[in-house]
Structure formats: structure tokens, C-alpha cells
Amino acid sequence: MILGAMSLAGKNRKCVGVIGLGIIGSRVAMALRGGGFQAFVWNLTPKSAPNFLGSSAEIAEMCGVVQLFVADAAATLEMIDAMSPKLTPEHVVMCHGTIGLEGTLEAARRVGQAGAQFLDAPFTGSKGAAEARQLVYYIGGSESVLEEVRPVLEASAKAVVYIGSVGHAAVVKVATNLISAATTQVLAEALALVRESGIPAGVFAGALASNAARSGVTDLKLSKMTGGDYEPHFSVKHMFKDVQLAIQLGNKLGLDLPATGTVAGALYSAVMRGWGDLDYAALAKAFQNGTGSAAHE
Q: CATH assignment of 171-287?
């Protein structure tokens, strides 16, 4: 730990803590350093990284702004509880994980109870976007707090979109991920149809390129499916978690979400087949049964 900096916690906005060095967090830390910030990092599993500290509490002790890139609500709350004794009114804690409405509200409550400020700040964009500093952050919380830390977010983002109150950004993020999951499942089914009909995948891709159904998701995932490239940019297991959050929210709101249930089933099946750590484009693997994809390329 670096001594003599503790009094700067919350005041030195050039000192940023990043907790969670997965696909996105590790790249955000690099983006921060490239943007002139001093980034201190911590991960549950120790990693060889610049300014790697001994605990999440040390991160809070060193840095006035803390960015949380952990997988779920349980991990987020664990990190907040560990930091709480070191948090002050000058700290801003930003929750970037997709942890749902209830998890986000509880995280905000615990940060507030510790006396610090909180932003609900999930992001959209996967590994490539993070490497290119092209993430998009959705923000729920105080607009004045957002303006205070906007330069931190902009170091890794192409856009910072204010949504509304704490929790609203969490809901929008779940909703947009639901669209991505459903689109990818339907894309896998469509690709199976054309392949089994003897139509080359490249012909289908050319037709889709000029079709209104084309989207950023289809552009990203179709090439992965046709090339059998399932290196994780956004894993099956994480998308399954996010779709479950959508179902939970729908139940709370009294909404029947039939397409969501179907996609959840497909993702669960993929996890059970051992594909959980693959990119969620691996939904297409369910159709690679030896009579379709390989035969018609």
C-alpha cells in the first residue's frame, strides 16, 4: 500500500479504484491509465497487474472513486461491505455489474449507509468495445454526482447515457440484454434453417446484410456462429444470469414474458452442456448435430 495518500480519498479524482479484473474490468483499468488516471486494482483471484492492492478495503482507502466490475449481486454486496469502514462522504462507488433492480437498490442502500455516494452504472459493450474505449454506460442516480465522475467514465466510453433514478439504469440494462439474448437465439435458429436447406451461410449473411432485421447483434454474432468462434466476449453463463434477472423482474411486475422464458431455457441447456464459459453465440452449437452446419458449408 502507498502511504501518505489516504487523506486524498474522495478528493483526488485522478485516483480510481477498479475492483474485478475480468474481461471488462481489466481493460477499463488500462483505459484509465491511458486517460491520465492513476488506477489501483483488486481482484478476488490475485493477478499480475500494475498497482494491485491487497484488498477491496485498501482500494477504498486509496481512491475516492471506485468502479465495481463483479459478476453478480452477492459479489457486489460483499465488496461494498468490505469497503464500508473506509468509505466517506467524499467517495463515489459505481456499480457496473448487471445485478438487477433489487441487488442495485440494496447496493445503493449499503453505500449510503456507509456515508458514501452511489451510481447505478451498468455498461453495454463487450471485450472489443472495452479495448477500443467504446463502452456505453447507463446511469441511475444523482446527476451532480455523475458530472463529478464523468471524466472517469469517459476514459473507457463512447457515450454516457443518463437514465434516471438509482435502479432505472439496472432495469434498462436487463431489458437491452434480453433483446440481445433473444436476437441471438433466433439468429441461431434462422442459421440452422438455411443450412439444413442447403443454403451456404455466406449467402444467408449477404441477404441479412440488406434486411431490416440486421442489427449490431446479428453483425457480431453471425460471424462467430458461421466460423465456430466462441471465444468469450460475453459468456453464456452471464447472459443466463441476466435473463433470469429479467424473469424475476417480470414476475415482480406481474408480466408474462414468454420469449424470455424460452431463451432462458436455451441458455440453461447450453450451460448444462458445458458451454457456460463460451460466448453466448454458442447457442448455435445446439444445431450442430452433424447433419446441418458442417455438411452445407
A: 1.10.1040.10
